[in-house]
Predict the 3D structure of the following.
Amino acid sequence: MSKVYIINYLAKKIDAKKYLEVGIDQRATFDNIDIPFKIGVDPYVDSPGIVQQTSDDFFIANNEKFDLIFIDGLHHVDQVYRDIINSLGCLNPDGMIVCHNMLPTSEDMQINPFRGGMWTGDCWKAFVNLRQTRGDLEMFTIDVDMGLGVIRRGKQNKVRVDREVNYENFTYHKYDWMNIYSLPAFYEFMDESNILDAMLAHFIQATESPEVNFYMGSHYHKIGQTASAVSFYLRAAERTHDDLMRYESLLRAGMCFNSQGCRNNSVEGMFQHAVALMPHRPEGYYFLSKFYEEEKKWFSGYMTACIGEKMTTRTPTKLRTVLSYPGYYGLIFERAITSWWTGLCNESRRLFHYLSVYEPLDRDHKKATVNNLKFMNGWKEDSDFISFLKTKDQELEVSARDLSLYTNSNINQLKYPFKHVNLVDRNYSEAFQDMFILYLNKGKKKGTYLEIGAGFPFFGNNTYLLESKYDWSGVSIDIETESAERYLRDRINTAVCRDAAQVNYVNLLEECKMPYIIDYLQLDCDPPAITYEILQRIPFDKYSFGVITYEHDYYNDESKSYKQKSREYLLSKGYELILTNIAPRQGCDYEDWYVHPQLIDRALIDKIKNTDSSVKIARDIFL
Ligand SMILES: C[S@@+](CC[C@H](N)C(=O)[O-])C[C@H]1O[C@@H](n2cnc3c(N)ncnc32)[C@H](O)[C@@H]1O
C-alpha cells in the first residue's frame, strides 16, 4: 500500500524514532511501519499496543512526543482539524504529520456521514483551512492512495480561497488549495537523484495502486519508452475507480500508440474509449479528430470535431498531467481542416478566419491558420460569416465588426501597459474595459470582481481576460437564464440568474465569500434607468471597489438625465470620475469610468485621467 510505503519512506528520511497512528482498524498500516516505538489510538479496536480511546481523549492525557504521526481516524472535517492541531502539539521539531484521504475523486465519496462505498469524508476541508491560515507550516498533498497530506513546521504562502469551500470548487482549485504533488514531483522534492529508481522501489511495494501505475506510465512516457508507458497506463485504467484517471490513462495510451506508428486500431480504440467515458470533456474529441485528420479520414475527423464542439465544455477541470491539447480552439481548428477536405470549403474559410481573429491561438496554430487562409486564396467577409458568428454559441449579439480588440501585435502601441501584459494575446471587452482594469491594477493576479449584467461569457466580456489569464475570481449576475447558463457552462467563476434590481448585494457577496475590497465593479444593465436603480442598491458603505465601469447609455437615454445622476451619486460615495463619455465606436457615448482614490495608485490615475466633455473612442485612448 502506498500509504505504508510513503510513511516508511518519510520515517527513514527523518530518522523517526516514535510513531503515532490515529485510527487503526485492522492494523494494516500500523503493523507494517518500521519505527521502533509505536502507539496506536482507536476507540473501537481492542488489541495489543492500541490505546482504546478517542483521539481527543488520548491527546488530553498524552505526554509523549512523536516524530511521525499518521492521522486516519474519524474522517470528519472538525475531527481531523482537531487531530492535526493536537498532533502539532506533540510533534518533535523536525517531525511530520501524514493525513490520509485528502483527495476524494467524487462528490459522494466525501459526504458526511458515511453512507457506504468508498469514502474519504470531508477531511480535505481541514487541510484547506490550514493552508489558508498557517504560514508557519509547510503543507503539500501527494497524489497517491486517495491523497496523503503532509504537514511539517516551516513556511508556506497562505493560499487565498475566495469562494465557497465545496466539492465543486475543489475540483477546479484543488491543485492550488491542496498543493498537490504528483509522485515524480514528490520524489524530486525529496531530492532523489534517480526518480525512476525511486518510483520503481515504490511500485514494487504497491503494484496495485492506480496512481503509482499512472505515474510510472507518465514517467516512461516522458523518457520516450512508450511500450512500458502503455502497459502502465492500461494497468492504471483497469485498477482505478476514478473516471478522470481512467480517461487520462486512455488518452495517454492512445498518444503512445500513435507515436509508435502502425498501431492505428489501438490509437483509435483508446481515443474512442476515452470519449465514451467522458463525453463532455474536449480533449478526447480533439485527439480523435486530429488522428483521423492525419489519416486523411476527413469525414470521421469532421464528425468528431463537430460533436466535440457541441458537447463539451470550454473550461474542463485540470487533468493530472499536461497533454498536448491546445485548448478549445483545437476542436474548431480540426473542424476547419477537415471541413475543407470534405468539400465544405466556405465553412472551412469562415472557421479559419474566425480562428485568426477571435481565438487566442498558440504559435503553431496561428502559423497553420494563416497558411491555410493563404492557401484558400484568402477570405472575404460575407453574410454567412456574420450569421455564423451570431450563431456561434449564440454569443455574438454585437456584430463582430463592432468589437475593436487589442491583440499582442499591438503591444508596442499600447499607451497604458501593465505588468504581465505579455500574457494578453487578445482582449475581450467591447471598449477596452479589461485593459483599463488591468492597467489600474498593475496587471494584478488573483483580483476580484462583481459583474452586473453578465451578457456573453467571452465576446465583448469585461471579465473573461481577468479570469482566464490573471486568475481573478468573482460573481456575475444576469437576468437572462441563457446567459447565466452559458456562464456556468463555459466559465470557471460563478454566475447567478437574478434580477439585479432585486438582489440583496450584501447577502450575495457574503454567500460568494467576496472580500470587502473588490477590485472591479461592472454596472451594465440597460436601459439606463435600470442601471441607475441597481447602482443605488450597491452597499458602498460595506464594500469598496477599486475600479468601476458604469454604463449610462447616454446615446440611448431619451431623458438624457442618467449620466449626470449617476455621476452625482458615485461622487457622493467618494469615487473619482477619471474617464468620461467612453464609446466603443462613433456615435455611441455609453460609459463613464471611476476609481476609488484610496485604492488605486495616484500616478496611474493622473496619467490616464481625462474628464472633458468630448466623446472618447476607447481604442484611441489605449492605442
Ligand atoms: C480508515 S480506518 C483506519 C485505517 C488504518 N489507519 C489503516 O491504515 O489500515 C479509521 C479508523 O478510525 C477509527 N476511529 C473512529 N473514530 C475515531 C476517533 N475519534 N479517534 C480515533 N480513531 C477513531 C475507527 O475505529 C477506524 O478503525
Remarks:
- The longest helix spans residues 243-260.
- The pocket of S-adenosylmethionine is lined by residues 21-26, 28-29, 41-45, 54-55, 72-74 (CB under 6 Å).
